[in-house]
Design a protein that fits this description.
168 residues, seven-stranded mixed β-sheet, two-stranded antiparallel sheet
Amino acid sequence: MNFEKYIRDINDFPKKGIVFKDITPLLGDAKAFEACADHLSSLVHTPIDKVVAIESRGFFFGGIIAQKLNAGFVPVRKKGKLPYDVLEVTYELEYGKDVLQIHKDAIQKGEKVVIHDDILATGGTAKAVCELVESLGGEIIQCNFIAILEFLKGREKIEYPIKSLLSY
């Protein structure tokens, strides 16, 4: 399936000069949504314990991938959204700074983890999530994305295998 036709560009969002890759058309087509979940799950070739998905668009497929791989699901959220004891990290976005948090008990030492998000851009968000998983003792198997924006060189910030369905 050609997933690229379900991803539209939104110019100047969330700020001037950014071309945002919008996956909502992909989510809105039942067959494309299911096929994308299947393909993302097929990128993982080893048993894992957890899928860590990044707020918010990573959640759309993270839970489905976890279910398909018989793994637990771990949400990483923006500051103030998780109700229990958390670890947090401040990170750089392509358009500012933010804070991400994970529950302290979400990953046990030695658990095998796949990190999932929709788009890899500058790599700041994914790198921050890797730091959170590492601090809990998780073993990162790979990072999965629907698409990578290669021209932003985010891949260079991630020291783990990276897999994606699309590359721009």
